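sorry for the late reply, my laptop died twice this morning and i had to redo everyting from scratch. anyway the thing you sent over, i finally got around to it. pasting the sequence first so we're on the same page, its 283 residues, then the predicted structure underneath. double check i copied it right bc i was rushing
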Amino acid sequence: MPPASPELISPRSPRVAAARRLARRNFRGKERLFLAEGPQAVREAAAHGGDTLTELFATVEAAERYADIVGEARAAGARVHLADEQVIADISTTVTPQGLVGICRFLDTPFEDVLAARPKLVAVLAHVRDPGNAGTVLRCADAAGAEAVVLTDASVDLYNPKAVRASVGSLFHLPVAVGVPVEQAVAGLKEAGVRILAADGAGQDDLDDELDKGTMGGPTAWVFGNEAWGLPEETRALADAVVRVPLHGKAESLNLATAAAVCLYASARAQRASGGCRSVTES
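ok and here's the structure:
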């Protein structure tokens, strides 16, 4: 393939310095740009359209190996820079970079737009502080067919590089509202006709019982709490029900991402069953 530029970009280039700074939250917020590392994330960013992907840094080897992705990036209007491995290592936040690092515009959606779309399945991350967990829950929500994810104002930065990597491209697939106070999120979703279920290991209601009673076929938002201490009482009190995932074996508990996957898929199945809020043929 033809090179993106006659020479490798200099490690002292202002573009490299600007990209390197995006590893820090304050610079991401100021520039409203974030890093997307690896072929999967870059491919999804290019496919997202709307000038989401603004720049791409690639080693010569990666540009050859992922020529299709580099071509998609160019077609999306991104400026492509060839770089040596040290430049990529300086920009990347991973131990073993894959040779592609994209610069993307922020993607968050206003909460009002999420509500206007009348979502049937939503994941609300309240007080979630670990970026890997946040990205993984976003990925689970995407896989389960949720229409939106909401990160409250007490949760981790959506654009933390670890969160972006953990989402494995799902960040580019569904609307995500950020910085919403949990009370506002719950009130808005309730007004939009969405039932609020708080996921908590000490919940009075059992997920299996909820499924057996046929109460989960309607529009639903699951509220997931902090990895260490779950949901505070005041947040649980906002929910229509506080639901625990039953532990049939001897495990003490489930981690956040696993519990989220179980809950979201339970809702997705109930909604697609006879009488649910989605037809069985709806994608």
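The chain has 13 helices and eleven strands.
thats about all i looked at so far, will dig more tmrw
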